[in-house]
Amino acid sequence: MKIGTAPKITAGAIGIVALANRGKVRDLYDLGEQLLIISTDRISAFDVVLPNGIPYKGQILTGLSEFWFDYTKSIVDNHIITTDVSQYPDALQTDAEVLEGRSMLVRKANRIDIECVVRGYIAGSAWSEYKQDGTVCGEKLPAGLVESERLPELIFTPSTKAEQGEHDENISIAEMEEAIGKDLSEKIIQTSFALFEAASEHAEKAGIILCDTKFEFGQIDGQLILIDEVFTPDSSRFWPKDEYKPGSSPRSFDKQYVRDYLSDIGWNKEPPAPELPAEVIRQTSEKYLEAYRLIVGRELL
């Protein structure tokens, strides 16, 4: 598969609409009661935006999120209105070519500033902590687990929602309850588990293991809704089911490949981030495209 260069968004405005917020990966434009979310090709690792983009990444994140928002809407409502650019407001039509395939028109919600992480297997930073302390995000786990092992039950590990240039910080469920209330916390946790279980079932049928993922939620008129992105290679750790073996670090369809490269070269995880080699960029793009193909059931390109 030849990996080309996807369209780039370089201006600070789309049509006559000014940029409202630039996240690590997404650009947000405020349209009053609605938001325009553009998924760029930017990639972050260890909460730092890297200097290189990943071709087609924006389209993949948008396409997968649209698929999963529709797949999980019976579990919890979400913010998506449409990804059909022809249905966007007139002010955006001059940039339709740039917006096509990598943008979503969504309802504006009051964001709940908690990263909601669900883990079904022990890997990544969770495995590193467990090896040292026998805990994950400070919570004690059973002794004797091996790398990538399936956990006895799903665990929920919240963190703060960091802005660009800042680091997420793990917090306890008690701290989450103190910040947003016990009832809302409980609802978020149970909804997160239900989402994870539904997505895991579909992913396994597609030959993918969903190791862990993170969600963001908001509220509209007091109703909990799912926002941002969902079950993408940016927000989730995906493994090929036929290669899974506890006690090893499986090949992944997500940005763990980039994290591993950056760790191998000894980067200190502080900005500025190093340039990615062309081969790392190419392979990362191919991994994202493969995840899209397996989950959605068709090629993106």
From TrEMBL:
Which one of the record's GO molecular function terms can you name?
Answer: ATP binding
Enzyme class name? ligase
Question: Which Gene3D superfamilies does UniProt cross-reference here?
Answer: ATP-grasp fold, B domain, Phosphorylase Kinase, domain 1
UniProt entry keywords in alphabetical sequence? ATP-binding, Ligase, Nucleotide-binding, Purine biosynthesis
One biological process term from GO is: 'de novo' IMP biosynthetic process
Q: By its UniProt entry, which InterPro entries does this protein fall under?
A: SAICAR_synt/ADE2_N, SAICAR_synth, SAICAR_synthetase_CS
Task: Note the NCBIfam families from the entry.
Answer: PRK13961.1 (NF010568), purC (TIGR00081)
Q: What is its EC number?
A: 6.3.2.6
All residue ranges annotated as the SAICAR synthetase/ADE2 N-terminal domain in the record:
21-271
Q: Could you say which protein family the record assigns here?
A: Belongs to the SAICAR synthetase family.
Q: Which domain of life is it from?
A: Eukaryota
Where is it found, in Gene Ontology cellular component terms?
cytoplasm
Q: What is this protein called?
A: phosphoribosylaminoimidazolesuccinocarboxamide synthase
Does the record's keyword annotation contain tRNA processing?
A: no
Pathway stated in the Swiss-Prot or TrEMBL entry:
Purine metabolism; IMP biosynthesis via de novo pathway; 5-amino-1-(5-phospho-D-ribosyl)imidazole-4-carboxamide from 5-amino-1-(5-phospho-D-ribosyl)imidazole-4-carboxylate: step 1/2
